[in-house]
Amino acid sequence: MSDISNYFDYAATTPVHPHVAEAMIPYFSESFGNPSSAHQWGQQAFAAVEEARESLSKHFHTGPENICFTGSSTESNNSILNHFVMSYWNENKKPGHLIISPLEHNAVGQTAKHLQDSGFCVVDYLPVNHHGIVNPNDLAGMIQKDTVLVSIIYGNNEIGSINPISDLGMICRSKNIPFHSDATQYAAHHMMDLQNLPVDFVSIAAHKCYGPKGIGALISSSKNKILPLIYGGRQENTQRAGTHNVPYIVGMARAYAILKSEYQDRSTTEKYFRDRIIHQILTTIPDSIVTGHPENRLSNHTSFAFRYIDGLSLLALMDQSGFAVSIGSACRSTLIKGQQQLRDIGLSDEWINGGIRITVGAFTTDRAVDELIITLARHVSFLRKYH
Fold it and tell me: Looking at the annotation, which residues are catalytic?
Protein backbone atom coordinates (compact mmCIF):
# COMPACT_ATOMS: atom_id res chain seq x y z
CA MET A 1 0.00 0.00 0.00
CA SER A 2 1.24 3.51 -0.79
CA ASP A 3 2.79 5.56 2.01
CA ILE A 4 0.53 8.61 2.40
CA SER A 5 3.44 10.70 3.69
CA ASN A 6 4.86 10.45 0.14
CA TYR A 7 1.79 12.22 -1.25
CA PHE A 8 2.86 15.69 -2.45
CA ASP A 9 -0.10 16.62 -4.65
CA TYR A 10 -2.46 18.33 -2.21
CA ALA A 11 -3.23 21.04 -4.78
CA ALA A 12 -4.91 18.34 -6.90
CA THR A 13 -7.00 17.00 -4.02
CA THR A 14 -6.84 16.24 -0.32
CA PRO A 15 -7.95 13.23 1.72
CA VAL A 16 -11.24 13.72 3.55
CA HIS A 17 -10.70 14.77 7.16
CA PRO A 18 -12.02 12.10 9.58
CA HIS A 19 -14.33 14.62 11.28
CA VAL A 20 -15.70 15.63 7.86
CA ALA A 21 -16.44 12.00 7.00
CA GLU A 22 -18.08 11.52 10.39
CA ALA A 23 -20.35 14.53 9.83
CA MET A 24 -21.40 13.25 6.39
CA ILE A 25 -22.29 9.65 7.30
CA PRO A 26 -25.80 10.20 8.76
CA TYR A 27 -26.95 11.87 5.55
CA PHE A 28 -26.22 8.79 3.50
CA SER A 29 -28.51 6.59 5.58
CA GLU A 30 -30.51 7.91 8.56
CA SER A 31 -31.29 11.43 7.32
CA PHE A 32 -31.51 10.53 3.64
CA GLY A 33 -34.46 12.71 2.65
CA ASN A 34 -34.70 15.09 -0.29
CA PRO A 35 -34.46 18.69 1.02
CA SER A 36 -37.20 19.71 -1.41
CA SER A 37 -39.70 17.27 0.13
CA ALA A 38 -42.30 18.61 2.56
CA HIS A 39 -42.34 15.65 4.97
CA GLN A 40 -40.13 15.28 8.04
CA TRP A 41 -37.41 13.32 6.26
CA GLY A 42 -37.10 16.06 3.68
CA GLN A 43 -37.19 18.79 6.30
CA GLN A 44 -34.37 17.14 8.27
CA ALA A 45 -32.24 17.22 5.13
CA PHE A 46 -33.33 20.79 4.38
CA ALA A 47 -32.27 21.86 7.88
CA ALA A 48 -28.85 20.29 7.37
CA VAL A 49 -28.36 22.18 4.10
CA GLU A 50 -29.35 25.47 5.70
CA GLU A 51 -27.11 24.88 8.73
CA ALA A 52 -24.22 24.26 6.34
CA ARG A 53 -25.09 27.42 4.43
CA GLU A 54 -25.12 29.41 7.67
CA SER A 55 -21.76 27.94 8.73
CA LEU A 56 -20.11 28.80 5.41
CA SER A 57 -21.58 32.30 5.41
CA LYS A 58 -20.05 32.97 8.82
CA HIS A 59 -16.70 31.59 7.67
CA PHE A 60 -16.61 33.90 4.64
CA HIS A 61 -18.34 36.84 6.40
CA THR A 62 -21.33 37.15 4.13
CA GLY A 63 -25.04 36.41 4.36
CA PRO A 64 -26.37 32.83 4.06
CA GLU A 65 -28.54 33.99 1.14
CA ASN A 66 -25.27 34.72 -0.72
CA ILE A 67 -24.13 31.06 -0.75
CA CYS A 68 -25.11 29.15 -3.90
CA PHE A 69 -24.15 25.47 -3.76
CA THR A 70 -22.78 23.96 -6.97
CA GLY A 71 -21.19 20.70 -8.03
CA SER A 72 -17.65 22.13 -8.13
CA SER A 73 -15.69 25.35 -8.37
CA THR A 74 -15.52 24.65 -12.11
CA GLU A 75 -19.31 24.93 -12.24
CA SER A 76 -19.16 28.08 -10.11
CA ASN A 77 -16.68 29.66 -12.51
CA ASN A 78 -18.78 28.68 -15.52
CA SER A 79 -21.91 30.04 -13.86
CA ILE A 80 -20.56 33.49 -13.07
CA LEU A 81 -18.94 34.05 -16.46
CA ASN A 82 -22.03 32.81 -18.24
CA HIS A 83 -24.27 35.05 -16.12
CA PHE A 84 -22.55 38.34 -16.86
CA VAL A 85 -21.69 37.63 -20.49
CA MET A 86 -25.16 36.35 -21.38
CA SER A 87 -26.97 39.02 -19.37
CA TYR A 88 -25.18 41.70 -21.40
CA TRP A 89 -25.84 39.85 -24.65
CA ASN A 90 -29.53 39.38 -23.87
CA GLU A 91 -29.95 43.05 -23.07
CA ASN A 92 -27.79 44.60 -25.80
CA LYS A 93 -27.65 41.94 -28.54
CA LYS A 94 -23.91 42.49 -28.92
CA PRO A 95 -20.82 41.02 -27.24
CA GLY A 96 -19.62 42.49 -23.98
CA HIS A 97 -16.04 42.82 -22.78
CA LEU A 98 -14.56 40.25 -20.38
CA ILE A 99 -11.18 40.62 -18.62
CA ILE A 100 -9.22 37.65 -17.26
CA SER A 101 -5.54 36.74 -16.90
CA PRO A 102 -3.70 34.27 -19.13
CA LEU A 103 -2.96 32.13 -16.05
CA GLU A 104 -6.53 31.33 -15.06
CA HIS A 105 -7.54 27.76 -14.35
CA ASN A 106 -9.11 26.20 -17.43
CA ALA A 107 -12.48 26.46 -15.71
CA VAL A 108 -12.25 30.20 -16.34
CA GLY A 109 -9.89 30.29 -19.34
CA GLN A 110 -11.69 27.74 -21.50
CA THR A 111 -15.10 29.07 -20.52
CA ALA A 112 -14.07 32.58 -21.58
CA LYS A 113 -12.69 31.24 -24.85
CA HIS A 114 -15.90 29.31 -25.55
CA LEU A 115 -18.05 32.38 -24.91
CA GLN A 116 -15.81 34.45 -27.18
CA ASP A 117 -15.72 31.81 -29.93
CA SER A 118 -19.52 31.67 -29.77
CA GLY A 119 -19.68 35.41 -30.37
CA PHE A 120 -21.05 36.40 -26.97
CA CYS A 121 -18.07 38.39 -25.67
CA VAL A 122 -14.61 39.75 -26.41
CA VAL A 123 -11.88 38.58 -24.02
CA ASP A 124 -8.90 40.69 -22.96
CA TYR A 125 -5.99 39.21 -21.02
CA LEU A 126 -4.22 41.15 -18.31
CA PRO A 127 -0.45 40.76 -18.70
CA VAL A 128 1.48 39.00 -15.95
CA ASN A 129 5.03 39.53 -14.71
CA HIS A 130 7.70 36.83 -14.44
CA HIS A 131 6.09 35.65 -11.19
CA GLY A 132 2.73 35.23 -12.90
CA ILE A 133 1.16 38.16 -11.03
CA VAL A 134 -1.03 40.82 -12.64
CA ASN A 135 -0.53 44.58 -12.16
CA PRO A 136 -3.55 46.57 -10.94
CA ASN A 137 -2.40 49.55 -13.01
CA ASP A 138 -2.85 47.47 -16.15
CA LEU A 139 -6.40 46.65 -15.12
CA ALA A 140 -7.27 50.31 -14.64
CA GLY A 141 -6.29 51.04 -18.24
CA MET A 142 -8.03 47.99 -19.70
CA ILE A 143 -11.56 48.48 -18.37
CA GLN A 144 -14.00 49.71 -21.01
CA LYS A 145 -17.56 51.04 -20.88
CA ASP A 146 -18.83 47.63 -22.04
CA THR A 147 -16.74 45.55 -19.58
CA VAL A 148 -19.16 43.07 -18.04
CA LEU A 149 -16.86 41.26 -15.59
CA VAL A 150 -13.27 41.00 -14.37
CA SER A 151 -12.23 37.51 -13.21
CA ILE A 152 -8.74 36.98 -11.77
CA ILE A 153 -7.51 33.88 -9.96
CA TYR A 154 -6.62 34.45 -6.29
CA GLY A 155 -3.88 31.85 -5.76
CA ASN A 156 -2.50 30.23 -8.88
CA ASN A 157 -3.05 26.48 -8.94
CA GLU A 158 0.08 25.69 -10.99
CA ILE A 159 2.75 28.15 -9.85
CA GLY A 160 1.32 29.23 -6.50
CA SER A 161 1.55 33.03 -6.83
CA ILE A 162 -1.06 35.16 -5.06
CA ASN A 163 -2.57 38.04 -7.01
CA PRO A 164 -3.26 41.49 -5.45
CA ILE A 165 -6.99 40.80 -5.24
CA SER A 166 -7.80 43.65 -2.88
CA ASP A 167 -6.17 46.24 -5.15
CA LEU A 168 -7.84 44.79 -8.22
CA GLY A 169 -11.17 44.80 -6.46
CA MET A 170 -10.84 48.44 -5.43
CA ILE A 171 -10.29 49.40 -9.06
CA CYS A 172 -13.37 47.44 -10.13
CA ARG A 173 -15.43 49.02 -7.36
CA SER A 174 -14.33 52.51 -8.40
CA LYS A 175 -15.55 51.80 -11.95
CA ASN A 176 -18.67 49.85 -10.90
CA ILE A 177 -17.47 46.67 -12.62
CA PRO A 178 -18.35 43.25 -11.12
CA PHE A 179 -15.27 41.40 -9.87
CA HIS A 180 -14.95 37.62 -9.49
CA SER A 181 -12.05 35.55 -8.21
CA ASP A 182 -11.47 31.82 -8.53
CA ALA A 183 -10.43 31.25 -4.92
CA THR A 184 -10.42 27.46 -5.10
CA GLN A 185 -6.82 27.07 -3.93
CA TYR A 186 -6.56 30.22 -1.82
CA ALA A 187 -9.69 29.70 0.26
CA ALA A 188 -8.60 26.15 1.14
CA HIS A 189 -5.49 27.40 2.95
CA HIS A 190 -6.12 31.03 3.88
CA MET A 191 -8.87 32.91 5.69
CA MET A 192 -11.15 35.15 3.62
CA ASP A 193 -13.37 37.98 4.85
CA LEU A 194 -15.74 39.08 2.10
CA GLN A 195 -17.04 41.87 4.31
CA ASN A 196 -13.68 43.62 4.06
CA LEU A 197 -12.45 42.28 0.71
CA PRO A 198 -13.63 44.18 -2.40
CA VAL A 199 -14.66 41.06 -4.32
CA ASP A 200 -18.20 40.50 -5.54
CA PHE A 201 -18.01 36.74 -6.17
CA VAL A 202 -15.64 33.90 -5.27
CA SER A 203 -15.62 30.25 -6.32
CA ILE A 204 -14.63 27.55 -3.82
CA ALA A 205 -14.54 23.76 -3.62
CA ALA A 206 -14.50 21.31 -0.73
CA HIS A 207 -11.92 18.80 -1.90
CA LYS A 208 -8.95 21.17 -1.72
CA CYS A 209 -9.74 21.66 1.99
CA TYR A 210 -10.02 18.05 3.26
CA GLY A 211 -13.64 17.85 2.16
CA PRO A 212 -15.35 15.60 -0.40
CA LYS A 213 -14.98 15.85 -4.17
CA GLY A 214 -18.03 16.88 -6.17
CA ILE A 215 -19.26 19.89 -4.19
CA GLY A 216 -18.50 23.60 -4.47
CA ALA A 217 -20.08 26.99 -4.06
CA LEU A 218 -20.36 30.38 -5.69
CA ILE A 219 -20.26 32.92 -2.89
CA SER A 220 -21.31 36.56 -3.17
CA SER A 221 -20.33 39.44 -0.92
CA SER A 222 -23.87 40.81 -1.13
CA LYS A 223 -27.26 39.71 -2.41
CA ASN A 224 -26.93 38.93 -6.11
CA LYS A 225 -29.04 36.62 -8.21
CA ILE A 226 -27.41 34.87 -11.15
CA LEU A 227 -28.80 33.22 -14.24
CA PRO A 228 -28.93 29.44 -13.84
CA LEU A 229 -26.44 27.38 -15.76
CA ILE A 230 -28.44 24.24 -14.96
CA TYR A 231 -32.23 24.26 -15.38
CA GLY A 232 -34.89 21.87 -14.13
CA GLY A 233 -35.86 22.90 -10.61
CA ARG A 234 -36.11 25.81 -8.19
CA GLN A 235 -33.32 24.82 -5.83
CA GLU A 236 -30.81 27.44 -4.66
CA ASN A 237 -33.31 30.26 -5.13
CA THR A 238 -33.75 29.17 -8.79
CA GLN A 239 -30.05 29.77 -9.46
CA ARG A 240 -28.98 26.13 -9.70
CA ALA A 241 -31.37 23.25 -10.37
CA GLY A 242 -30.81 19.74 -9.08
CA THR A 243 -31.40 17.81 -5.87
CA HIS A 244 -29.05 19.00 -3.15
CA ASN A 245 -26.08 16.75 -2.42
CA VAL A 246 -26.77 16.85 1.31
CA PRO A 247 -23.87 14.74 2.67
CA TYR A 248 -21.33 16.66 0.59
CA ILE A 249 -22.79 20.06 1.48
CA VAL A 250 -22.55 19.10 5.16
CA GLY A 251 -19.00 17.87 4.57
CA MET A 252 -17.90 21.09 2.87
CA ALA A 253 -19.19 23.23 5.71
CA ARG A 254 -17.43 21.05 8.26
CA ALA A 255 -14.16 21.14 6.28
CA TYR A 256 -14.07 24.94 6.32
CA ALA A 257 -15.05 25.05 10.00
CA ILE A 258 -12.07 22.80 10.74
CA LEU A 259 -9.81 25.03 8.63
CA LYS A 260 -10.78 27.98 10.82
CA SER A 261 -10.16 26.08 14.06
CA GLU A 262 -6.80 24.72 12.89
CA TYR A 263 -5.73 27.67 10.77
CA GLN A 264 -2.72 28.97 12.69
CA ASP A 265 -1.09 25.58 13.23
CA ARG A 266 -1.97 24.37 9.73
CA SER A 267 -0.60 27.48 8.04
CA THR A 268 2.61 27.47 10.07
CA THR A 269 3.25 23.80 9.28
CA GLU A 270 2.51 24.21 5.58
CA LYS A 271 4.86 27.17 5.26
CA TYR A 272 7.59 25.31 7.12
CA PHE A 273 7.50 22.37 4.70
CA ARG A 274 7.00 24.65 1.69
CA ASP A 275 10.07 26.74 2.47
CA ARG A 276 12.14 23.69 3.38
CA ILE A 277 11.42 22.07 0.02
CA ILE A 278 12.24 25.27 -1.87
CA HIS A 279 15.56 25.67 -0.05
CA GLN A 280 16.60 22.03 -0.46
CA ILE A 281 15.76 21.78 -4.15
CA LEU A 282 17.51 25.02 -5.04
CA THR A 283 20.63 24.00 -3.12
CA THR A 284 20.62 20.34 -4.20
CA ILE A 285 19.56 20.25 -7.85
CA PRO A 286 21.53 22.32 -10.40
CA ASP A 287 19.64 24.29 -13.07
CA SER A 288 16.46 24.48 -11.02
CA ILE A 289 14.34 27.57 -10.42
CA VAL A 290 11.25 28.38 -8.41
CA THR A 291 8.26 29.23 -10.60
CA GLY A 292 5.85 31.78 -9.24
CA HIS A 293 6.68 34.25 -6.49
CA PRO A 294 9.24 32.87 -4.00
CA GLU A 295 7.34 34.23 -0.95
CA ASN A 296 3.97 35.68 -1.99
CA ARG A 297 2.51 32.28 -2.71
CA LEU A 298 0.03 29.75 -1.37
CA SER A 299 1.08 28.46 2.04
CA ASN A 300 1.36 24.81 0.96
CA HIS A 301 2.59 25.29 -2.61
CA THR A 302 5.99 24.88 -4.24
CA SER A 303 6.69 24.68 -7.97
CA PHE A 304 9.86 24.47 -10.00
CA ALA A 305 11.24 24.29 -13.49
CA PHE A 306 14.20 22.05 -14.25
CA ARG A 307 16.31 22.87 -17.29
CA TYR A 308 16.44 20.25 -20.07
CA ILE A 309 13.94 17.97 -18.32
CA ASP A 310 10.69 16.47 -19.58
CA GLY A 311 8.19 16.90 -16.76
CA LEU A 312 6.05 13.92 -17.73
CA SER A 313 9.06 11.60 -17.65
CA LEU A 314 10.08 12.97 -14.28
CA LEU A 315 6.53 12.58 -13.00
CA ALA A 316 6.47 8.94 -14.10
CA LEU A 317 9.80 8.18 -12.43
CA MET A 318 8.66 9.81 -9.19
CA ASP A 319 5.45 7.80 -9.27
CA GLN A 320 7.39 4.58 -9.80
CA SER A 321 9.45 5.53 -6.75
CA GLY A 322 6.31 5.96 -4.67
CA PHE A 323 5.93 9.75 -4.72
CA ALA A 324 2.95 11.77 -5.91
CA VAL A 325 3.85 15.09 -7.50
CA SER A 326 2.36 16.78 -10.57
CA ILE A 327 3.27 18.86 -13.59
CA GLY A 328 0.51 21.36 -12.83
CA SER A 329 -3.26 21.31 -12.89
CA ALA A 330 -4.71 17.81 -12.54
CA CYS A 331 -7.20 18.84 -15.22
CA ARG A 332 -4.50 18.84 -17.87
CA SER A 333 -1.60 16.83 -16.44
CA THR A 334 -1.59 14.29 -19.30
CA LEU A 335 -0.96 16.85 -22.03
CA ILE A 336 2.39 16.19 -23.69
CA LYS A 337 3.58 19.64 -24.65
CA GLY A 338 5.38 22.62 -23.23
CA GLN A 339 3.65 23.93 -20.16
CA GLN A 340 1.80 27.08 -21.20
CA GLN A 341 1.98 28.84 -17.86
CA LEU A 342 5.78 28.58 -17.97
CA ARG A 343 5.72 30.20 -21.40
CA ASP A 344 3.42 32.92 -20.11
CA ILE A 345 5.87 33.89 -17.36
CA GLY A 346 8.67 34.19 -19.90
CA LEU A 347 10.67 30.98 -19.57
CA SER A 348 12.61 29.87 -22.63
CA ASP A 349 12.30 26.57 -24.49
CA GLU A 350 14.90 24.68 -22.45
CA TRP A 351 12.79 25.21 -19.30
CA ILE A 352 9.15 25.01 -20.34
CA ASN A 353 8.82 21.21 -20.39
CA GLY A 354 10.38 20.77 -16.96
CA GLY A 355 7.75 22.15 -14.60
CA ILE A 356 6.91 20.24 -11.42
CA ARG A 357 4.42 21.14 -8.68
CA ILE A 358 5.01 19.86 -5.15
CA THR A 359 2.32 20.64 -2.57
CA VAL A 360 2.29 19.68 1.10
CA GLY A 361 -0.44 18.88 3.57
CA ALA A 362 -1.67 17.04 6.63
CA PHE A 363 0.47 13.91 6.23
CA THR A 364 3.75 15.53 5.15
CA THR A 365 6.77 14.67 7.31
CA ASP A 366 10.41 15.72 7.50
CA ARG A 367 11.47 12.21 6.57
CA ALA A 368 9.26 12.19 3.51
CA VAL A 369 10.59 15.58 2.41
CA ASP A 370 14.18 14.37 2.72
CA GLU A 371 13.43 11.23 0.71
CA LEU A 372 11.52 13.26 -1.87
CA ILE A 373 14.49 15.56 -2.50
CA ILE A 374 16.97 12.67 -2.73
CA THR A 375 14.71 10.80 -5.17
CA LEU A 376 13.97 13.88 -7.24
CA ALA A 377 17.67 14.78 -7.54
CA ARG A 378 18.49 11.23 -8.65
CA HIS A 379 15.84 11.19 -11.36
CA VAL A 380 16.70 14.68 -12.66
CA SER A 381 20.35 13.62 -12.96
CA PHE A 382 19.31 10.43 -14.77
CA LEU A 383 17.09 12.23 -17.28
CA ARG A 384 19.73 14.83 -18.07
CA LYS A 385 22.16 12.11 -19.09
CA TYR A 386 19.86 11.31 -22.00
CA HIS A 387 19.01 14.88 -23.00
Answer: 331
